[in-house]
Design goal:
With 335 residues, this protein is α/β, with parallel strands linked by helices. The protein has one domain: Rossmann fold. It is built from 11 helices and 8 strands. Strands 1-2-4-3-5-6-7-8 form an 8-stranded mixed sheet, with helices on both faces. The radius of gyration is 19 Å and the shape is globular. 46% of the residues are buried.
Length: 335
């Protein structure tokens, strides 16, 4: 059936199967949190999900995409079952895996908690600062072994590498560009926000737009190979549309306003393995951005994986079987 994409970019709405892992979930309150705008909230709650235990330099920050949540990423079978088991790249017996609900998402502080559009206009650097304070204040961790992030989390990984180069060893960004959101990527986001600002919000239109922007055309053609099956797939998508909080979603999609790692790419000290996907309409390889910008990073490599009728466009970032061997290479590489 049509995957219930989070307004097209991440993980929400995808069913989570029963998982035997012993997740720990909790909340941490950040006192007097100052946003880049200069606004201060006396309390900002950060919800988190974790696996494993901190010991030595074993902290791994796992960062979700726009509209997602930490638990939604850690518990996805196509992600967790490929990464966290014994002998797998991020074996939970070796690593401390921490997946926060980013600012404005999940069970963390967000506009719909009560402030609505009076909630400060947060950006990606605010979200990363909340991650840093969670690590330091709750767990006493000032240095991270690995930051691995999908979509929005991919861009957060670049914020870590450029703004906090001494605090992370390894970066694995999945499905983004080390470049500000411009061109078609910005235009479709503005279109989506306009749909959500309608009265009433056009949640169906936003879902349709994001599905087209994040899907692999070959895979859609495979599932809708005839007129009848294509219409059936659309009806499934239509039936899956659910109303949400428009202000929360607007803030989520507008939060990339401060993202531009390009001035500091040469200052990245972490070793980087960036993976993008040729069937991802949000980050099309023909723009040439990834190889051009990665040439500025001292210790970086990249792969752009081909699309097939069995891949998932932008959503490949969550299907770890496509890229986990590159993660193993990064973890095993000698400094």
């Amino acid at each position: 059936m049509i995957r219930r994409l989070i307004l097209g970019v991440a993980l929400a709405g995808m069913a989570l199967g029963a998982d035997p892992r012993s997740f720990t979930e909790g909340d941490h309150v950040l006192r007097d949190f100052r946003f880049q705008t200069g606004e201060v909230l006396p309390e900002v709650k950060v919800h988190y999900t974790s696996l494993g235990a901190p010991k030595g330099n074993n902290a791994v920050l796992v960062l979700h995409g726009t509209g997602g949540s930490g638990r939604g990423l850690l518990a996805r079978d196509v992600f967790a079952n490929e990464l966290f088991g014994p002998g797998q790249p991020l074996d939970e017996n070796r690593y401390f895996l921490l997946a926060p609900d980013n600012l404005g998402h999940g069970k963390s502080s967000k506009p719909s908690d009560g402030l609505g559009e009076r909630f400060p206009k947060y950006g990606y650097r605010d979200m990363v600062e909340a991650q840093r304070r969670l690590l330091r204040e709750k767990f006493g961790i000032a240095h991270v072994r690995l930051v691995i992030g999908t979509s929005m989390g991919c861009m957060h990984a670049w914020v870590w590498g450029t703004e906090h180069p001494d605090e992370v060893d390894l970066l694995m960004p999945l499905a983004c560009q080390p470049y500000p959101i411009t061109g078609r990527n910005l235009m479709w986001r503005k279109m989506l926000v306009d749909l959500l600002r309608q009265n009433p919000p056009n949640f169906a239109g936003a879902r349709y737009l994001s599905t087209l922007m994040s899907s692999n055309p070959q895979e859609l053609q495979k599932r809708g190979a005839t007129r009848a099956t294509a219409i059936t797939e659309f009806e499934k998508l239509k039936a899956a549309v659910r109303p949400g909080d428009a202000v929360d979603q607007i803030y989520q999609f507008e939060s990339s306003w401060d993202y531009d790692p390009t001035p500091k790419l040469a200052q990245v000290k972490a070793r980087v393995y960036h993976v993008n996907f040729a069937d991802d309409p949000i980050n099309p390889p023909e723009l040439g951005i990834l190889p051009r910008e990665l040439a500025k990073v001292p210790h970086a490599r990249h792969r752009i994986l081909p699309g097939t009728p069995d891949t998932y466009g932008h959503g490949n970032h969550t299907h770890a079987r496509f890229w986990k061997h590159f993660l193993s290479e990064l973890l095993d590489e000698k400094p």
